[in-house]
Amino acid sequence: MKQANIRNFSIIAHIDHGKSTLADRIMEQTHTVSERDTKAQLLDDMAVEQAHGITVKSRTVRNHYEADDGQTYEYNFIDTPGHVDFSYEVSKSLAASDGAILLVDATQGVQAQTVANLRLAQQNHLVIIPVINKVDSDAADVPRTEAQIQKLDPAFENLEMLKISAKTGMGVHEVLEAIRTTIPAPTGDKTAPLKALVFDYMYDAFKGIIAYVRLIDGSIKADDALLLMAEQTKVSANSLGYFAPNMTPIGELNAGDVGYVITGLKDPQLVRVGDTMTAVANPTTEPLAGYEPAKSMVFAGFYPKDNNYNELKLAIEKLSLNDSSFHYSLENSEALGAGFRCGFLGMLHLQIIRERLQDEYGLEVLTTAPNVTYHVHLNGQTEPMIVNNPINFPEFSKIEYVEEPFVKAEITTPNELLSDVMKLAEKHKSTLLDMDNQADLIVLTYKMPTSEVAYEFFNQLKSVSHGYATLDTTALDYEVADLVKVEVDINYATVDALSFVVHRQDADKLTQELVKKLKVAVPRRLYPTPVQAVVEGKAVARVDIPPLRKNAAVSGGKKSISKKQALLRRQGVNKRQSAKNSIDLPQAVFNAVLELDL
Ligand SMILES: Nc1nc2c(ncn2[C@@H]2O[C@H](COP(=O)(O)OP(=O)(O)OP(=O)(O)O)[C@@H](O)[C@H]2O)c(=O)[nH]1
């Protein structure tokens, strides 16, 4: 394929505006797949994606398009996820594209994520084709949607926009033509030293690490000796090809192409998304700019449930490779043993990783309460202690002060929901920095503690705005905060894995809520079990879990004395045993903490 006949593009859209449906139609109309094969949304085949109805992981698919000018074009479509937790994935896909289709649902109009994704595309200097979708729907308001899009960018002002139905296929041919006529062909030099952007990775149990690449210059042939520049890792191109949408081997990838390289490499630690791939024989001198590594916002402990630590370790390693914004390190808890401290972009990300462990690896994990990274300044120390695990949060008498991270939170909301959204933000310790109009939407800019945004805020925002408001966050600096560690004692023994850190002002309310939940969640025993929440050495909330059976000392009046004595002896044995036994806690106990509105 001549380079002039290649187009690399993405589709960017607000969630549910029809991106996957349009991708399916494009694959059908270019005969990449037959209509029969396009069962329910081909691209969203990951089980979690189907369960959540959202695209999590980016895919790339090569299509061959026979255009109206009589020529055949190679259309590399790079799918992007639509959720805010995954904007990191979006930037990766966009860096590999030359243009983007900005898809807007005519029944909803421009939404916050439309604006946020457009901004990312503009930062990547992509040519943008706005397209209005769902025009077949009775609820569509095409003129209003068109007017909103026109206000987003001066370039769209007098533009005649494409109006389509991804569902019926109407107008999709015009989109295919616009891709050819509007998005530029890649401009690389096939004869220059190899320079390829590794924009994603996948792990395959048999084939090892598979790198997704966009070739900027040069070419790759099977068996070429390659170099991943970040870690100076040498690999061999065991096999290469493209996705159509299944892996399709090919002998050579050239400048401008998007495809995959099977490296055979087994160690996930040696590869990095955003890396530059070059040839050992004739390496490029200048690596590509790559990406900023994604910073974790939320941390939580993952512990194996059924003694399958090694299996869990392997699964977590593979997932972190496949999802470069998911980080982990090893950790230990007295209550739960060996486990992992995992870093996520947000709570939805955490939930999705948990589900992927279950769906793809059959592994259930115990999850501890989420937290952010704190800077703890100890008395007499100049450097702060970096704490991202409540277990390591130092004892209060040693602490001079604590700092927590803040974010700039940009909330885009329809005008009529403004007051509800503002009330919610205020509840989460925010400071309003700015207020602006964009199309028919209001953009509110707040400064907020990261912990307030990262846990439940997004779900609450979705709920008060019926899904119409969206959120975009950028990290700001650390600031002093009044934080305390809450410890949970069960039967007078601290269960370290249940500890969490909260703002002092919320500690009372949250600990009361917590013990109430624990009263139901902690398994009953033969004797009453006290559960208390402790803050700075003082028990601030307490419940007693009732015993499993009637206590011999207070009931069983009709029983004979010897039977009572036997029962008392059994209870005594149980008490002594339990003092020695490590406590076996079900996920329900951890959920009691996870469900708190921290
Ligand atoms: N009426 C109508 N419905 C559509 C059209 N395109 C998509 N839909 C429906 O809109 C819903 C969302 O479509 P998807 O293609 O899954 O949306 P998406 O943007 O890929 O969603 P995410 O992957 O979650 O970002 C589905 O129920 C589709 O059937 C259209 O042109 N007309």
TrEMBL record:
Subcellular location(s) of the protein: Cell membrane
A Pfam family it matches: LepA_C
Presence of keyword Protein biosynthesis: yes
Amino-acid positions noted as binding GTP in the UniProt annotation, renumbered to this chain: 16-21, 133-136
Catalysis: reaction(s): GTP + H2O = GDP + phosphate + H(+)
Key words of the record: Cell membrane, Elongation factor, GTP-binding, Hydrolase, Membrane, Nucleotide-binding, Protein biosynthesis
Domain Tr-type G stretches: 4-187
One annotated GO molecular function: translation elongation factor activity
UniProt superkingdom: Bacteria
Predominant subcellular localization, coarse grouping: membrane
EC number: 3.6.5.n1
Membrane protein topology class: Peripheral membrane protein
HAMAP family xref list: LepA
NCBIfam families: lepA, small_GTP
Role this protein plays: Required for accurate and efficient protein synthesis under certain stress conditions. May act as a fidelity factor of the translation reaction, by catalyzing a one-codon backward translocation of tRNAs on improperly translocated ribosomes. Back-translocation proceeds from a post-translocation (POST) complex to a pre-translocation (PRE) complex, thus giving elongation factor G a second chance to translocate the tRNAs correctly. Binds to ribosomes in a GTP-dependent manner.
Family statement drawn from the similarity comment of this UniProt entry: Belongs to the TRAFAC class translation factor GTPase superfamily. Classic translation factor GTPase family. LepA subfamily.
Name under which the protein is recorded: Elongation factor 4
Organism for this UniProt entry: Pediococcus inopinatus
Gene this chain is encoded by: lepA
